[in-house]
Design goal:
The complex is a heterodimer of chains A (675) and B (219). Chain A is of the alpha+beta class and 675 residues long. Helix content of chain A is 40%, strand content 15%. Chain A is globular, with a radius of gyration of 25 Å. Chain B starts with 6 loop residues before the first strand and ends in a 36-residue tail after the last helix. In chain B, strands 1, 2, 3, 4, 5, 6 and 7 form a seven-stranded mixed sheet that branches. Chain B has one domain: P-loop containing nucleotide triphosphate hydrolases (Rossmann fold, 3-Layer(aba) Sandwich). Classes of the chains: A alpha+beta (675), B alpha/beta (219). Chains A and B meet through helix 20, strand 10 and helix 21 of A and helix 1 and strand 3 of B. Strand 10 of chain A pairs antiparallel with strand 3 of chain B, so a sheet runs across the interface. Chain B: Pfam families: Ras.
């Protein structure tokens, strides 16, 4: 995490006072960015990279000196300039814009160790500039105004080809290149002990709790407690407009959906009267770039990042002060789009707008605002599942899962396409036809509907829901039978269920989902459900599921006794599933949870930036100490208190990874049951 | 979806019958709230829209010998679900068409549903019209958009049972379902409600509890 202070100081000096670079630098950076796009082997698919490239263009166009930031094509036509060695070698990305930099000098930032720095091929401009090792804040980006003026990715990606580059010397980022070692050799160097400042800090308190020491003066999360409060409507006389507007602007996260004709479709906060003006402005801005065949992907205003996603006739805008990267925000917008498709199907959506470009989509989407909002709030609260695009499974023994799978397979009826048992948003069992797999994004839509939005659960009965699963087939509906079983109930009959209003948390709900392509198959699937539940009761599986649900996730200390780790995420890439310990006790409050998730988002952004080749990243901050480690098999993120030694962190990480390896077949559904 | 007609049985002196009931009406008139009140005797002011349809059951006793089980399809009112409605009312024995007495347009929608039911559904279907949110006009009489007399006149003309209900205060909710149950053919022997000429609806007859208690059960 830390290189020696002299080295770092000189870097920051270079960077801060470097003369403004000229176009060739930007070009080189851009080309470099493109190359990186091609070689990047992250889990995002190619089209997304293309998107990033687009984002570069638009960033360029909206900055004042317009002609410099021309499109990629323009660059490609220029005579090739020999890239600076430093650019190609290690720093495809670029620093912050000059107007943000002054703030950085006095702010805590992420520290990057010398061993990491060459792999850490992005740099949040703030990183590496700050002189004191012990006081760096990893979650700087979450602080909006200061270092986090833009999201990490906006620094890494969007500014890559923009004018912002021109103002800074990329050379100044040159770290010392070193060979990439494995985790142990990287982290066992005992660099911690080399810094006197670190020693001093460490000696002061051995056991400072996470997030306790941070000062909140410029913390954008200050208002997080009010984030989900409703913004009242502007009254008819408009007397309270100013006050309402203040409340609205204080929200850390906004999601807006509008049609290309400028009709509002959805806004997370604020009623129609309040947002209409903004919808108009946004529509104008986006359409301007659309007309120029140079779509706008995102821009930054003050401490707020705007990211735009255009899907046919729909414009999606995410406005975030939480410091997520562009690609993370775009993934969230895509999820909202999927939710709309899930309600309407693509042909219906297309047809509506083909027939009448002026269509008011609020009408056809009526009643699904709650689904969009619960999805949006999941993102604002911070969702590991959304971040990692992976699912979480209920941890039970392999043989127990096998029994449940077989019970489902045995009770399977002709009309069944997918059969799932889900407990508290965690997958227990899936059966599926051999030739169809279930797309994680589809499942997250279903989980959102069932466990986050109250509408289905509140009914208390059995449900028959037409739903389009875009990952499966975005042109048609499937029909989903759902019944809930409360893990705290003795009886299994869903019709005796108390609705969610009676106080059972979504964590306690066990749902049986049976999906068919036939809309007439309700009674058939209902019969199958009755058979499955009866069988699960008689073979003891229901008791096992209920016990596992009631027990909740294990704490980090249960998994590795005595560890200094407070929380971790482990994603198995092959299974597209992740595992995490309980959020309590350290992260049970929404604010602590958001901070944790912001940290994970930053770590994720660092290792998933399109030109990033970071495999291991250790971040030391004033309030936390964190590590990310990615291999072709897994992604591992963990966090510990601020004074945890690097050795302690890696030791904990290794222990957890060994544990997951050992428990793999319990923690994850491997293979799954097919028919 | 399997055809499920009324299933009746008689053990000793007690009778048990099962009927399929469907709730229809514009969105946000309170269909789910009426069901929640009827099935669980609960009310939730911040109820979210129903997605798709919910299937619930509730059993009521008409008298000490007679038990009626309702299988209730609580449908979502949004336009996009309209094409699914036939599968819910296809074999229904009874329907509750709900409107909101504070929303004039919701009665128009209710009339469309009644028309569709009378044209498409089971010819013996018993339809009840329910004007919900009675509690709102009890507090603020000027909120009422549909006069009781007007709705009642329409119901009489169309041959419907009629109640003004409040899911919030429970007023008339149980009465609504009970009077439907009383009109249902509790015994399987022969059609009870011969089609009244041309209109395709059911006769609106005064509540006559026990009229159907006549002949012996066919099973």
């Amino acid at each position: 995490m830390r290189h020696s202070s002299d080295q770092r100081k000189s870097h920051s000096h270079d960077r801060l006072y470097a003369p403004i670079d000229t176009a060739p630098t930007a070009t080189a950076a851009k080309e470099d960015g493109i190359t990186a796009t091609m070689t990047y082997d992250g889990e995002n698919e190619a089209p997304k990279h293309r998107t990033h490239a687009d984002s570069d263009e638009s960033m360029a166009t909206i900055t004042p000196q317009e002609d410099d930031g021309t499109t990629l094509e323009g660059h490609e036509q220029r005579p090739a300039l020999p890239p600076r060695p430093s650019l190609l070698g290690d720093r495809p990305t670029t620093p912050l814009s000059p107007r943000k930099r002054p703030a950085l000098q006095s702010k805590p930032t992420t520290a990057v160790s010398s061993v990491d720095i060459q792999t850490l091929s992005f740099p949040d401009g703030s990183r590496g500039t700050f002189p004191t090792p012990g006081s760096r804040s990893v979650s700087e980006a979450g602080h909006g105004i200061s270092g986090g003026t833009s999201t990490p990715s906006s620094r890494k990606v969007s500014q890559n080809g923009s004018e912002f580059d021109d103002s800074t010397s990329l050379m100044s980022y040159t770290p010392t290149l070193r060979a990439n070692g494995d985790l142990a050799s990287l982290l066992d160097e005992g660099l911690n002990s080399q810094s006197p400042a670190w020693k001093l800090l460490s000696s002061q308190a051995d056991n400072v709790n996470l997030f306790e020491t941070i000062d909140y003066e410029d913390n954008a999360l200050l208002n997080f407690d009010q984030e989900f409060d409703e913004v009242e409507a502007v009254d008819s006389k408009g007397g309270n407009e100013e006050q309402v507007l203040l409340l609205w602007k204080a929200k850390l996260k906004h999601y807006l959906i509008l049609s290309s004709a400028g009709k509002p479709i959805y806004s997370r906060h604020g009623d129609q009267n309040l947002i209409n003006g903004y919808i108009g402005i946004i529509q104008t801005i986006i359409s301007f770039f659309q007309d120029a065949k140079d779509p706008l992907m995102g821009f930054t205003a003050g401490g707020t990042r705007f990211v735009v996603l255009i899907e046919g006739p729909l414009y999606f805008v995410a406005i975030s002060k939480l410091g997520e990267s562009d690609s993370q925000l775009r993934a969230q917008l895509e999820a909202l789009y999927m939710q709309i498709l899930s309600t309407l199907t693509l042909p219906t959506l297309t047809q509506l707008f083909t027939n009448r470009p002026n269509t008011d989509l609020r009408r056809p989407l009526e009643g699904t605002e709650t689904l969009l909002s619960s999805l949006a709030d999941t993102f604002t609260k911070g969702s590991p599942s959304a971040l990692l695009s992976a699912l979480e499974c209920l941890k039970i023994r392999k043989s127990q899962r096998h029994t449940i799978n077989n019970t489902l397979l045995k009770a399977r009826t002709e009309k069944l396409l997918y059969g799932l048992v889900v407990a508290g948003g965690r997958l227990v069992s899936v059966i599926r036809p051999k030739r169809h797999s279930l797309h994680p994004s589809d499942l997250s839509l279903i989980f959102n509907m069932l466990f986050e939005a109250g509408s289905v659960k509140a009914g208390g009965g059995e449900n028959w829901i037409p739903v389009c699963l875009p990952g499966f087939n975005k042109t048609g509906y499937l029909y989903m039978y759902v019944s809930f079983i409360n893990a705290h109930d003795g009886e299994e009959s869903s019709s005796d269920q108390r609705p969610s209003t009676a106080g059972s948390s979504p964590e306690d709900e066990i749902a049986i989902l049976l999906i068919s392509t036939d809309k007439e198959s309700f009674y058939e699937l209902k019969q199958m459900r009755d058979d499955v539940v009866a069988q699960l009761e008689s073979n003891g599986s229901m008791g096992i599921i209920k016990a596992a649900v009631r027990q909740g996730r294990p704490s980090t200390a249960d998994i590795v006794p005595g560890t200094q780790l407070r929380h971790f995420l482990y994603k198995s890439r092959a299974n597209v599933q992740f595992m995490m310990p309980s959020l309590s006790p350290d992260f049970s409050s929404p604010l602590a949870r958001r901070k944790l998730m912001s940290l994970y988002h930053n770590l994720h952004a660092s290792t998933h930036a399109k030109h990033s080749h970071v495999k291991v990243l250790h971040c030391v901050a004033r309030d936390s100490n964190s590590l990310v480690w990615t291999t072709p098999l897994f992604e591992f993120y963990c966090i510990a208190g601020p004074n945890t030694s690097r050795a302690g962190l890696t030791h904990g990480a290794n222990k957890v990874i060994q544990w997951v390896k050992r428990e793999e077949e319990r923690v994850f559904i491997i293979g799954g049951a097919v028919f | 979806m399997a055809a499920r007609g009324p299933a009746g049985s008689r053990v000793g002196n007690s009778r048990f019958a099962q009927f399929k009931l469907v709730l229809l009406g514009e969105s946000a008139v309170g269909k789910s709230s009426i069901v929640l009140r009827f099935v669980k005797d609960q009310f939730d002011s911040y109820r979210e829209s129903t997605i798709g349809a919910a299937f619930l059951t509730q059993t009521i006793s008409l008298d000490e010998n007679t038990t009626v089980k309702f299988e209730i399809w609580d449908t979502a009112g949004q336009e996009r679900y309209k094409s699914l409605a036939p599968m819910y009312y296809r074999n229904a024995n009874c329907a509750v068409v709900v409107y909101d007495i504070t929303q004039a347009s919701s009665l128009d929608k209710a009339k469309q549903w009644v028309k569709e039911l009378q044209r498409q559904a089971n010819e013996n279907i018993i339809i009840a019209l329910a004007g919900n949110k009675l509690d709102l006009v009890t507090e603020q009489p000027d909120k009422r958009a549909i006069q009781t007399a007007d709705a009642e006149a329409y119901a009489r003309e169309a041959g419907l049972l009629f109640f003004e209900t409040s899911a919030k205060t429970a007023e008339n909710v149980r009465e609504l379902f009970t009077s439907i149950a009383k009109k249902l053919p509790l015994d399987q022997a022969g059609p009870r409600n011969p089609r009244s000429g041309g209109r395709g609806g059911v006769e609106l007859r005064p509540d006559t509890p026990g009229t159907q208690a006549g002949g012996p059960c066919s099973c």
